């Protein structure tokens, strides 16, 4: 088990944990939550042995194998599949020793190493690595590309695959869903549910935590508090505790009143569609859990648009894509004020292409795209974070788009995104990904949009900011079109789904559970036998032939040994038969021949011992021979 006792952990002058206690048992799956900077990643570093405790004890079983998701990539020239296989250090050691034994024609070492390889599931390793990559969204041809050809987000997927490839007793995953789309997250959930070891997971995805973990550890006020259940259960328990604090009562009641009013208004106009009903359930659940977040540092809204048009945007017979590649055909989409649409679809199917076209970053290749006279788009995408002026502060960014506004008004607005005091005046250069995302959202919210186009807006956002964004989107009067891997956000802010797949955009009749089933069927349909599969099969057959050759080398001496034991045993049987023939003669028992009888009895006893010893050695040789022959037959 993992046992932390009276643990103190410090990074520089900042004390992260003070007298913390925690006990985790083998096989538990635990989510680690807490504010940014509370010490979650430092706790992982402690468990990996990269940090030492400043006080107290951190105890882990000494023989546990620990796997973790690295945050850097240092071997850019490796092929993707080889990079993932590198995660299994023991496998790579055996393969290296095998290569050396083959070069030296060492039959005994080859036999031993092939047995080790079989015990390490080495013959299926390449296929398992490819399966991991496929689950995380890599196409077969991408698996044979060098790591250097992938972007930062896809390199993180490779690091995740490498961590999953490594046999482990303890798996530490720090924000594994940050660079994944919904498809890959659903696959990862299933994989982690079947993981037999102990799992510790840092994540800001509440639905992901609910699906995977059975306990939550909350890092707060330098302590570790263990809650039973998933993230929702943790929220409820924390809400009950905070509700007992008198100073929180008034804010709590105001928040509840706001939520009740919103649910009443939404129910009055909601259709009977499955997603609409799912949203009502999500809102009612959110109402119950709102008190768990009364101490959130975030509180903002999207400013109301001055004018609106209806429709805001109308696309007919759209052909979307790039000059050298058509991605979507015959797209028909009309967005009106109040529309709440979530985009679903496999990775690479064209969701971002659709949003970029609507945002005017791409021009349609065909069809008609008409924009409303008063259309104001608020567009969020990951590349916009890089477009922020690194030398400018949050306040300066806002002043540039609101030159006539009083500074205090701008500071108050930025405060809702947790840019307060000196943080308003610091350059963006050293901001984290989450801080840049909050600033980008602040600039959009200030701009009074009547259409929000959001492409993975929750990447880098912590749980509190995700909840604040959810609440702000619920109050937004304009239209929303969103791509997100955060299912809680989709369930709480959208009324309908569009499915982007196989070159088309169609209405999806169903909710996210239906989509998960659709996606599973789609993956089955997309699994033809490929050249890469054939290559992997050839590799496995080659290794099996090598193993068979090594086994045949080991068979010969065993065969000779068994034959020798059989021959020696036959000789003993002949001698024993002669002795027993003489002992069967009644004359041998006459008093005059007692010395001869004594010698025959001694010889009989001696031969019987030899017979027993030889029989046992012969049987052992036969069993070993049969076992090796069985391995040879199974590998043929």
SSE map:
Layout: E1 2-11, E2 14-24, E3 29-34, H1 40-47, E4 55-59, E5 66-68, H2 80-85, H3 89-104, H4 107-119, H5 125-135, H6 152-165, E6 170-174, H7 182-193, E7 198-202, H8 206-212, E8 215-220, E9 223-228, H9 231-243, H10 249-269, H11 274-289, E10 313-322, E11 325-335, E12 340-344, H12 351-358, E13 366-371, E14 377-380, H13 383-386, H14 394-401, H15 407-415, H16 433-446, E15 451-455, H17 463-475, E16 479-483, H18 487-493, E17 496-501, E18 504-508, H19 512-525, H20 531-583, H21 594-635
Parallel strand pairs: 3-7, 3-8, 5-6, 6-7, 12-16, 12-17, 14-15, 15-16
Antiparallel strand pairs: 1-2, 1-4, 8-9, 10-11, 10-13, 17-18
Helix pairs in contact: 3-4, 4-20, 5-6, 10-11, 11-18, 14-15, 14-16, 20-21
Please explain how this structure is put together.
The chain is of the alpha/beta class. The chain is built from 21 helices and 18 strands. Strand 1 (2-11) and strand 2 form a beta hairpin.
The amount of helix comes to 40-55%
Count of extended strands: 18
Which stretches are low in confidence, meaning pLDDT under 50 for 5 or more residues running?
none
Shape: elongated
Q: Specify the structural class.
A: alpha/beta
Order of strands in the sheet with the most strands? 5-6-7-3-8-9
Largest sheet: 6 strands, mixed
The CATH superfamily title of the largest domain = P-loop containing nucleotide triphosphate hydrolases
Beginning-to-end CA distance, first to last residue: 43 Å
Number of domains: 5
CATH class (first level) name of the largest domain: Alpha Beta
Give the CATH topology of the largest domain.
Rossmann fold
Strand content: 15-25%
The CATH architecture name of the largest domain reads 3-Layer(aba) Sandwich
Oligomer: single chain
Mean pLDDT: 84
| Cα gyration radius (Å) | 34 Å
Count of helix runs: 21
């Amino acid at each position: 088990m993992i046992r932390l006792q009276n643990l103190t952990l410090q990074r520089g002058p900042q004390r992260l944990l003070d007298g913390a206690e925690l006990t985790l048992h083998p096989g538990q799956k635990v989510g680690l939550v807490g504010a940014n900077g509370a010490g979650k990643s430092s706790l992982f570093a402690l468990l990996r042995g990269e940090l030492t405790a400043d006080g107290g004890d951190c105890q882990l079983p000494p023989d546990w194998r620990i796997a973790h998701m690295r945050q850097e990539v240092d071997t850019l020239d490796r092929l993707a599949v080889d990079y993932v296989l590198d995660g299994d250090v023991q496998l790579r050691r055996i393969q290296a020793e095998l290569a050396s034994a083959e070069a030296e024609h060492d039959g005994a070492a080859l036999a031993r190493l092939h047995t080790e390889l079989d015990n390490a599931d080495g013959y299926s390793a390449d296929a398992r690595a490819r399966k991991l990559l496929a689950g995380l969204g890599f196409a077969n041809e991408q698996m044979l590309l060098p790591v250097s050809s992938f972007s930062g987000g896809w390199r993180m997927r490779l690091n995740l695959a490498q961590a999953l490839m490594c046999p482990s007793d303890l798996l530490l995953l720090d924000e594994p869903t940050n660079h994944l789309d919904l498809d890959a997250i659903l696959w990862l959930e299933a994989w982690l549910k079947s993981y037999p070891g102990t799992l510790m997971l840092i994540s800001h995805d509440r639905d992901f935590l609910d699906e995977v973990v059975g306990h939550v550890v909350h890092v707060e006020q330098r302590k570790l508090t263990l809650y039973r259940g998933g993230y929702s259960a943790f929220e409820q328990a924390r809400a009950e505790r905070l509700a007992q604090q008198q100073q929180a009562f008034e804010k709590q009641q105001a928040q509840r009143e706001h939520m009740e009013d919103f649910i009443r208004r939404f129910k009055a106009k909601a259709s009977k569609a499955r997603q609409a009903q799912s949203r009502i359930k999500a809102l009612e659940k959110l109402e119950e859990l709102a008190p768990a977040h009364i101490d959130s540092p975030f509180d903002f809204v999207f400013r109301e648009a001055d004018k609106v048009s209806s429709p805001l945007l109308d696309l007919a017979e759209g052909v979307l894509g790039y000059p050298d590649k058509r991605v979507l055909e015959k797209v028909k989409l009309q967005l009106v004020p109040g529309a709440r649409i979530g985009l679903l679809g496999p990775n690479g199917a064209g969701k971002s292409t659709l949003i970029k076209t609507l945002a005017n970053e791409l021009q349609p290749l065909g069809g008609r795209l008409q924009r409303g006279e008063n259309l104001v788009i608020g567009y969020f995408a990951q590349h916009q974070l890089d477009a922020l002026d690194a030398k400018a502060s949050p306040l300066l960014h806002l002043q540039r788009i609101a030159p006539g506004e009083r500074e205090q008004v701008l500071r108050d607005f930025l405060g809702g995104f947790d840019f307060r005091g000196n943080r308003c005046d610091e350059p963006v250069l050293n901001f984290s990904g989450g801080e840049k995302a909050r600033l980008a959202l602040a600039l959009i919210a200030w701009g009074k949009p009547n259409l929000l186009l959001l492409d993975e807006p929750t990447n880098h956002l912590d749980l509190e900011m995700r909840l604040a964004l959810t609440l702000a989107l619920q109050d937004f009067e304009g239209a929303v079109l969103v791509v997100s891997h955060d299912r809680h956000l989709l369930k709480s802010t959208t009324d309908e789904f569009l499915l982007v797949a196989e070159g088309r955009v169609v209405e999806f009749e169903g909710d996210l559970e239906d989509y998960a089933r659709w996606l599973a069927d789609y993956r089955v349909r997309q699994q033809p036998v490929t050249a890469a599969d054939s290559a992997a099969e050839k590799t496995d057959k080659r290794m099996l032939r090598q193993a068979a050759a090594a086994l045949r080398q080991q068979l010969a001496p065993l065969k000779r040994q068994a034959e020798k034991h059989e021959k020696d045993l036959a000789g003993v049987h002949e001698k024993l038969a002669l002795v027993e023939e003489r002992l069967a003669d009644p004359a041998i028992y006459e008093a005059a021949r007692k010395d001869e009888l004594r010698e025959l009895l001694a010889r009989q006893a001696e031969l019987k011992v030899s017979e027993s010893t030889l029989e046992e050695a012969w049987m052992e040789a036969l069993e070993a021979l049969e076992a090796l022959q069985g391995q040879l037959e199974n590998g043929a």
